[in-house]
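testing teh design pipeline on a random one, pls ignore if ur not involved
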């Protein structure tokens, strides 16, 4: 992998930078963080702007509506949009970063033509129905049942931590289609239209007061068999594809954000007086810690480039995804602790962005597979150690 920018990539960066310089200042004010209908309108309107400008699905293959760009161009896109303070994917998160890439890899041609254009244009918002109250990290123990009834599955069960459910059009749903099979073998991956009768959405509140998650109650919900992605009872393998994108490439924006956070922490340390009459930045230990974080973030960025390269080549970066997810989420939590150390007593208020981020990111080592799950994956698939009993 060549880490230098080619002439074509530099030209792409310059075009994108010029477009962002015109488009971002014209955006309306962002809606309140907990007004999800307004956030959906805002996020999907930005996605439509990207689509019309030719920047939607930068890393998606051209035959599926994307730009078919190089992995480096995808990373340039993410860096430039972050530096321009352009909106992130927001309500489009699951569709653009999870469901869309999974359909590209595993969906039928009919499923791709039905959903991929809508995801890219911002017409479709997706949510994720994987976790359950009794099946969190041990996701394969899920109990939501789908019983075949002719051309439909009848689904009954509960899902929790369903991102964007209250404004979603579709849900990527894992169900158990063979209760007699071993727990990893009897699962199927379904496309669930959220306007189907029998679905109840119950919003949940996080520690910081946000309501992006919901609980789903599924009571006699009929889902067409044609909405199944992959073969019946092969949903765990399909879910592994989704997880690889979720763990390996879906955190790219957060990694860019981490670099900005570190720069902000350093700025605060350089300007905050200490008890000795200097500033916090005079502390050699603090500078050494900042340097360690900077080195780790550079290493994670190199790993992201490797994962994006594999994904763009049609491979599923399972092992690299677990390494990145494990390293990044634990780094982000330690970065939050570092921010609290620099802020001192100011870190006791939730009104500071760095403090709110620290509280919100406590869930990072749990969401999308806990750190323990990632370590098990690496121990078994990379090191060849025996499976945990």
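output:
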């Amino acid at each position: 992998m060549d880490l230098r920018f080619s002439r074509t990539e530099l030209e792409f960066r310059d075009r994108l930078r010029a477009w962002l310089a015109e488009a971002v200042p014209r955006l309306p004010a962002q809606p309140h963080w907990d007004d999800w209908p307004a956030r959906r309108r805002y996020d999907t309107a930005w996605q439509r702007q990207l689509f019309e400008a030719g920047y939607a699905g930068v890393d998606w293959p051209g035959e599926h509506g994307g730009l078919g760009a190089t992995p480096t161009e995808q990373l340039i896109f993410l860096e430039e949009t972050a530096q321009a303070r352009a909106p992130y994917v927001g309500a489009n998160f699951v569709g653009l970063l999870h469901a869309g890439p999974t359909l590209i890899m595993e969906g039928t041609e009919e499923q791709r033509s039905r959903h991929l254009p809508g995801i890219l244009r911002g017409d479709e918002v997706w949510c994720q129905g994987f976790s359950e109250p009794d099946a969190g990290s041990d996701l394969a123990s899920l109990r939501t049942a789908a019983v075949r009834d002719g051309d439909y599955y009848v689904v009954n069960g509960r899902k929790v931590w369903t991102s964007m459910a209250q404004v979603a059009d579709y849900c990527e749903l894992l169900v158990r289609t063979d209760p007699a099979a071993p727990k990893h073998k009897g699962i199927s991956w379904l496309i669930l239209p959220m306007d189907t009768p029998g679905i109840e959405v119950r919003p949940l509140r996080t520690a910081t007061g946000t309501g992006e998650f919901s609980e789903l109650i599924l009571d006699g919900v009929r889902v067409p068999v044609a909405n199944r992605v992959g073969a019946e009872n092969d949903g765990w393998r399909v879910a592994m594809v989704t997880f690889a994108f979720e763990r390996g490439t879906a955190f790219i924006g957060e990694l860019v954000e981490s670099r900005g956070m570190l720069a902000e922490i350093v700025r605060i340390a350089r300007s905050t007086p200490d008890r000795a009459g200097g500033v916090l930045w005079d502390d050699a230990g603090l500078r050494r810690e900042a340097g360690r974080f900077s080195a780790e973030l550079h290493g994670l960025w190199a790993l992201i480039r490797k994962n994006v390269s594999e994904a763009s080549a049609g491979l599923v970066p399972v092992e690299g995804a677990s390494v990145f997810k494990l390293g990044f989420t634990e780094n982000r939590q330690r970065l939050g602790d570092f921010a609290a150390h620099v802020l001192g007593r100011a870190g006791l208020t939730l009104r500071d962005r760095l403090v709110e981020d620290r509280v919100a990111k406590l869930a990072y080592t749990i969401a999308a597979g806990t750190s323990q799950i990632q370590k098990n994956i690496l121990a078994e698939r990379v090191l060849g150690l025996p499976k945990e009993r």
